[in-house]
Structure formats: structure tokens, C-alpha cells
Amino acid sequence: MRSRHRSSRGSRPPEHANFHAHLRIFLGVVASMVLFFLLVLYIAKKNWQLKEEARRKSITGRAQTVGMGSSRMARNPADATATSAPPDSEVINEALLLTRRAELLQASGQTRQAVEMYEQALTVWPTLNQARSELGRLYIRQRSYNKALPVLEAAVSYEPDSAALLNDLAVANLYLNRPQKSLELLEAAARFDPQFAPARFNLALCHLLRTDRPAARTALEQYLALSPEDPKALKEIAFLEAAEGRYEEAYLTLQKALAKTPDWPPLVLDAAATAALMGNMEQAISYLEKAEGIIPAPLLLQSYRGPAFREIRKTEPGKALENRLAEKIRSVTGAPPDPGLLGNEPLLSTRNESPPTATPERP
Description:
363 residues; mainly alpha; 0% strand; elongated
């Protein structure tokens, strides 16, 4: 009896032993899978790090071929297009992703960061014209005309029949004081796309620089047919009318433009000058007082001392205005204002190449 009792206490049921054996096997398998998973993650991470390092080295090695900065492309903008091998899908996707990021930065007003992102896209894919064209326009808006020129030349060499690119290259040449080259490019743009409005407006500016007023008026009328009542064009029409001594007509044209953009400084100042030339001193003073609030004192005083305001300067309100402006200038610190504030600037194309509205995009 006692022996049977010891025997029953010292042994375990077969089912209990099998459970523990299966549990140990299961835990062993789970531990092996976890270790294997961690090993896979480690290998994937190392592989990604190696590929990323290789990509960075590749970008560094290709940086000198980028369309906007390399001396090779500056010498011959078509080189990259002619000699570059077709990129693989990984390069294309990376360049397009960088370009998309640049567009988002540009849309949010982060111009400097957008420029850097476009430049990086072009180090990956030097002939990506989508990035080249936008980078060229951004360079122009940053007043970096010498940087813009080779970029846009390269873009035009890739798409020689693009009215938008021809227009933007003409704008770069215009800012670099090459009106004849600008004229040739703009005439080509107008031939390729007669409905591309910015080229017509910029043609008018070229003709005005060459003092060819009849050609300027024709170009402005063509532009206004595409962009009716654009204040920028109406300003130049008024200038042509005033230059012919038709002050009343010029004044009415300026009133039409001011109805669209009542606080645009060039229009306000032109209205003041035209009213003064008409002998309407009260209206001229009214516009000058408005200009005082929206135009930097140094620029306004320089214009005020011109021949159009000679008679007004002799009046008491005119003398008071001159004294106020001089006093403001004495208290001004910092960089001088941009003289371009009081003039028209050439029109750049937009990404969708749509005709400009009443307030077109300005550099």
C-alpha cells in the first residue's frame, strides 16, 4: 500500500509532460522568430544606410553638372541635353520628388529653400526641364539675372518652341540690358504662341526702351485684347498718350487703371503728374498726398523734383510736401528703396502658362 502511494506521487501523467514539452518548443520557435526578425531589421537598416551614403556620394560627384551652376553648361547649355544618358527610374522618381517639394516650398513663400531644392533636383537629373524652368524664374525674382541666364538658355535648348521659356529667357536678357536679344526671343515666342499674353506685354516694354512708340502701342493693344483692362498695360498706354500731349486722355486711362488697383504706387504717381500737367493742382496735390503714404520718401521726392511738378512746387501745399519729404529722408536708415517700385517690370510666365489676370505675376 505504501509502495503504491510513493509510486503515484513520484510520477506525472503523460499529458502533463507533453504540455511542458510543447510549451518549450513553442517558446523556442517564438524566440527564434523574434531574433530572425530583429536580424532582418538590422540588415535592412544597414543596407538602407549604405544606399543612402552611396546616393549622397553620387549627388556630390554629379553636383558640377547641374544646369544652373556649372561652368560647362554656362559655356554650352545644350551639353547636358546632348550627352546625358537616360536616367533610371530611381533617379527620375527622386528628382521629381525633390521638384515637388520645391514647388510646395515656393507656394508657401519659402523662396530660398525652394531654390535649394530645385538645385538638388538638378544634381540628381541635370536635364529635368521642369526644375530648370522654375529655377530660372526664381533666380530672376531674386534679381540673380546672371544665374538665371544659363539655366533658361539650357531650358530653351531642350524646348526651343516653348513660348513660356522663350519669354522668361527674354526677361533675363532684358534685365541684363540686352533689349535686342530680348526682342528676338519675344518675337519668336509670339510666333510660336500668338495667344501667349506675357510675350506681347514684354514686347511693348522692349519697344519703349527703343523709343519705338508705334510698335509699343501695337504690342500693348494686342496684349489688352488677351488681358482686357490690365492696369500694367493701361499705365503704358497712358504714358504714350501723355508723351503725345494728350493729357486728358491719359488721365482718363489712368482713372480706369486706378479703379482696378487704386493703391499701386506707379499709377498714383502718374495720376498726380498727369493732373499737374493738366493744371489741376488740387487733384495733383491729392494724389501726391496719397503717394506720400505708399511710396518711400527718397523715391517720391526724386520724382516730385521732376519737371511735371514744377508749378506745384511753387505753391504753399507743394512747399509743405517737399519739406515733409525732406524731413522724412533725414530720419530714414537702412538700405535705399528699390527704384523698380515706381516702374513696370516684365511679366514672367507661370507654371501653367496661363494668360495673366488684371494683377499678373511680377518678378
